[in-house]
Amino acid sequence: MERGINTRCLHLEETEGKTDNYGALTFPIYQTATYAHPAVGQSTGYDYSRLQNPTREHLEKVVASLEGGIDALALSTGIAAITLMMELFKPGDHLIVESDLYGGSIRLFNNVSEKNGIEFSRVACSNEDVESHVKDNTKAIYIETPTNPMMNVTDIGALAGIAKKHGLLLIVDNTFLSPYFQNPLKLGADIVIHSGTKYLGGHNDTLAGFIVTNNEEISEKLRFLIKTTGAGLSPFDSFLLERGIKTLGIRMERAQENAFALAEWLKKQDVVTKVIYPGLPEHPGHEIMKKQARGFGAMITFDLDTKEHAIALLEKVRMIKFAESLGGVETLITYPTTQTHADVPVEIREKNGITDSTLRLSVGIEDSKDLIAELEVVFKCI
Ligand SMILES: Cc1ncc(COP(=O)(O)O)c(C=O)c1O
Predict the structure, then answer these.
(1) Quick one: which of 68, 72, 73, 71 has its CA closest to 8?
(2) 198 part of the active site
(3) I want to staple 144 with a disulfide (CB 3.0 to 4.6 A). Which of 9, 17, 173, 282 is the partner?
(4) Is 305 designated active site?
(5) What are the backbone dihedrals phi and psi of residue 287, each rounded to the nearest 5 degrees, phi first?
(6) Per DSSP, what are the bridge partners of residue 346?
(7) Residue 348 pLDDT > 90, yes or no?
């Protein structure tokens, strides 16, 4: 029987009963670049830390177990994970990608992958006919659900059906929900991406990224690629990520509880013209989320009535930080137009509905009454 996710955040079953490392509860930081060999042709199992390091490996096993994958690779950032994943493709390959994605992913595809000969079709996977975009050279479908920042929800199982029918890989960036709320591999995806900087690390103090797969052949290719391209996560950052993961469940639950309170409160404010949170029953993806996820997360996107009000809010918040990122214990507010999505061509931003009065809130684990109290004061004086 599979253990519960909170238990899997804390304990790696395969290492139990072993008293290596003096029985230390915390997996040590093996801060080493290289490893001495017992004899020619022999190895301790580790040769050089770019290939593998015990601390990174331990973290990778924990993340693989959380996502239900056979392998997870820990990288220096989320975008390093996506960059490595793109090395699975070659010039002339075509990918169908969700049109509303984290701006850094769009920038990578537009400026690096296209230069390397990869073609893209940008499709709103939550409401367009994805199958009609499949071509002879299509190799994969790449999505986020919910998307960043417009919180569009795609039915992962249905898309996996289309992917399987056409022999395509389904790749899901699961950053917004974390493995605590959603496991795309279990719904038919082949590869899961995480910015570990967000909920997995959880403390706004460390950058990291993950690629998880349940496919032996993909795992082998990725292991070759991480060795060859070299963006593996450092031992110290691996330790920080593993420490963050221990409290993933309670952080996600608490942040979600706060998000519900804030979404309901925001809806009642005069200056707020739109609140997009999949936990609200009126969100078009609410029912799909109920089916494929165990929660709705803690990301809220909302529109104010004017750009001036949006800017005034960003400049007046104090406890809530005007900062780029998400998924940490502290509540952050982001302005996609000049921050996360600044490099996204205007026509794509407009198509996705991102305006200059759109704000994105990553709800943290403070007392919700204090978050509301701060916004109440700010709304009164803008
Ligand atoms: C959904 C999503 N994927 C990937 C990334 C990139 O991760 P990182 O900033 O760790 O490189 C981000 C960053 O905000 C993100 O929001």
Answers:
(1) 68
(2) yes
(3) 173
(4) no
(5) -70, -40
(6) none
(7) no
From first CA to last CA, the distance across the chain in angstroms is 54
Residue pair 82/105 in contact by the 8 Å Cβ criterion? yes
Does residue 173 have an active-site annotation? yes
Question: What is the distance in A from the centroid of ligand 1 to the CA of 43?
Answer: 36
- Cβ 175 under 6 angstroms from ligand 1: yes
The answer to whether the CB of 99 is under 6 A from ligand 1 is no
User: At which residue do the structure tokens 């994605």 appear?
Assistant: 101
289-323 pLDDT per residue, tens:
999 999 999 999 999 999 999 999 999 999 999 99
The finding on whether 202 has its CB within 6 A of some atom of ligand 1 is no
3-state SS class at 319: coil
Judge whether residue 134 has pLDDT over 90: yes
Model confidence at 279: pLDDT above 90: yes
Spatial distance between the Cα atoms of 222 and 210, rounded to a whole number of angstroms: 11
Distance 195 CA to ligand 1 centre (A): 5
- The Cα 279–Cα 371 span in angstroms is 18
Atom nearest to 79 CA in ligand 1: 11
Query: For residue 23, what pLDDT is reported?
Result: 87
pLDDT at 16 over 90: no
Give the residue-averaged pLDDT of 88-94.
98
Q: Of 71, 173, 190, 237, which one is the catalytic site residue?
A: 173
Amino acid at 3: R
**For residues 197 and 207, what is the distance between their CA atoms, to the nearest angstrom?**
4
Alpha-carbon distance of 184 to 182, in angstroms, equals 6
Other Cβ atoms closer than 10 A to 156:
27
Tell me if residue 367 is catalytic: no
What's the whole-model pTM score? 0.98
* Catalytic one of 30, 102, 142, 199: 102
Q: Is the dihedral of CA 217, 142, 363, 254 positive or negative?
A: negative
- Which residue has its alpha carbon closest to ligand 1 atom 14? 325
Q: What is the mean pLDDT of the chain?
A: 97
How remote is the CA of residue 108 from the centroid of ligand 1, in Å? 12
Q: Indicate the helix (H) or strand (E) that contains 216.
A: helix 216-229
Residue pLDDT, tens place only, 35-82:
999 999 999 999 999 999 999 999 999 999 999 999 999 999 999 999
